[in-house]
Amino acid sequence: MAPAIKTEGLTKRFGDIVAVEKLDLSVDERAVFGFLGPNGAGKTTTVKMLTGLSAPTEGKAYICCQEVTQGSVEVRKNFGLLPDVPAFYDWMTGEEYLHFAGELYGMTYPALTKRSAELLDLVEIKKSAKRKVGGYSRGMKQRLGIAQAMLNHPKVLFLDEPTSALDPIGRRDVLDLIGKLKEEATIFMSTHILSDVERVCDNVAIIDKGKLLVTSTVDELRHKYARSVFEIEFEEDDKTFVETIQTRPWFVKSERAAENGNPTLRITARDVAAARKELPHLIAASNLTLLRYELAQPSLEDIFVEVVNGS
Amino acid sequence: MNGFKTLLFKELKEQFRTFRLLIVSGVFLFFGLSSPLLLKYLPEIIKASGQDITGIPLPAPTALEALREYSGTALQVGLLIGVLITMGAIAGERSRGTAVMTLSKPVGIGAFVTAKLIAISSTFIIGLVIGGVGAFGYSQLLFGGADLNGFVGQTLLLAVFLIFCVATTLIFSAVFKNSLAAGGISIAILITGAALTQLPWVGRGIPNSLTTWGNQLVAGGGGRTEWLALGITVFLIGIGAYIAAVILKRKEI
Lengths: 311, 253
Description:
The structure holds 2 protein chains of 2 kinds. By secondary structure, chain A is α/β, with parallel strands linked by helices. Chain A folds into 2 domains: 5-223, Rossmann fold (3-Layer(aba) Sandwich), CATH 3.40.50; 228-295, Alpha-Beta Plaits (2-Layer Sandwich), CATH 3.30.70.920. Chain A has helices at 43-50, 94-104, 109-122, 138-150, 168-181, 194-200, 218-224, 239-245, 272-286, 300-310; strands spanning 5-14, 17-27, 32-36, 58-63, 66-67, 79-82, 156-160, 186-191, 203-208, 211-217, 229-234, 251-259, 262-269, 290-295. In chain A, the strands form 3 sheets. Chain A has a 6-stranded mixed sheet, sandwiched between helices. The longest helix of chain A is centred in the last third of the chain and has 15 residues, at 272-286. Chain B is mostly helical. Helices cover 77% and strands 0% of the residues of chain B. In chain B, helix 4 packs antiparallel against helix 7 and helix 7 packs antiparallel against helix 8. Chain A binds chain B through residues 48, 51-55, 70-71, 73-74, 76-77, 79, 81, 83, 85-89, 91, 100-101, 103-106, 145, 148, and chain B through 2-3, 6-7, 10, 14, 17-18, 96-98, 100-109, 249-250, 252-253.
């Protein structure tokens, strides 16, 4: 199966500044691809090159096997774009904008009327559809932006920071929507909100200073960056318990952290298997009241920080 | 040109909905009505201001003078408004981010630029027609004996020249992301063009000589016709739109 998005050595330089350097990506069809990076990493520049809004200095980009260039009109029929800050003509109403965008996609009037009504309902701005966009809040503009990007049932959907302007409920709705869209489109989501990626993405790529640091599935990343850290919470003072485990051969270090306001003991083990086997017995023997015991899974945030700092 | 019809319709609607059409038409109509009126009542106005002009012989105002006065004003004001309205046409869309939304769709950049040129030009043509009707009607009413053919010819030439100003400004609006920079450079270029009319040979072929030809027409004919300048101006309008599209294609949207 041919990839929905493919880049070959995609590079963008602004004078001496390298915004994106030799980016090689391949995104499968029907995948939700999270494109992660700190601010200024080159995410938006990449999205602009992928959508033909900026010419690469070197390299090529393909959407559904068609090369993307600044003048290519045909390839634009295959994708929808939600930019990081969606901007509209303030004098138009939300409904008018959808009709304008749909006509540019060559949609017929009946199909357009049906689709725009459907999308306005889906992004929950139907009540404001006849109001001028100039009076919309940032969140409403974001919702309208999502609707216009989905108008022509695109094969690929580029979402640049799709949840950045939304309140928690709006964010949940948009992420749910992305989850549903997965069945009909490939989604390329650029973001620095890691919890969003954890929730909806199958694959991720981490970019920093224009360089691709890692690309993998979320599960593979978790496995690769798995840490041998146990988190234990006791009701009583755990001093004697710590003294006991310090004598064990697998013990590396212990530290105290506060998880949700509760003092948590974090124990790093050299041999996870041995520690997993022994720790429950040691806890039972300590006569302390156990509140929580778990082998900590690294969050995507931990991995992200580790990957970016290690680059 | 993909999306041209939709883009043109949107641009025309924008001229109307953002009151540009109303403002441009209003300005031309204001000068169209005030020029003959001011000329007619100039002696009374001077007297009312307390100045003694009994010793100064004032020639009787004519329709020709009134229309010439209006034409001169329409040229200067039209040029200024033309630049002001056009300078943000592309630069503004790029800086606000609306160009990203539009040009990420299956739209030709040529269609995007041409739709703007036609819509803004239409606004000026409508404004000139309304202002012209006002100026001619009022001149005829107040003085009589106005030459319709000459005035229509002059208005057409003025329209072509203003469209040239719009096309020139569009080029710089594509070059710069800052509307003010686009406007400033455009005005400088257009004023330089006016200075070049004094040069022999060169002066006859540049767009600014259309205004001289127009003045001769409104004065009742005579003088030289400047078909070469008209041809060159129409060519430059087309080339201007093409250059703006080529520049925009190479820019970061």
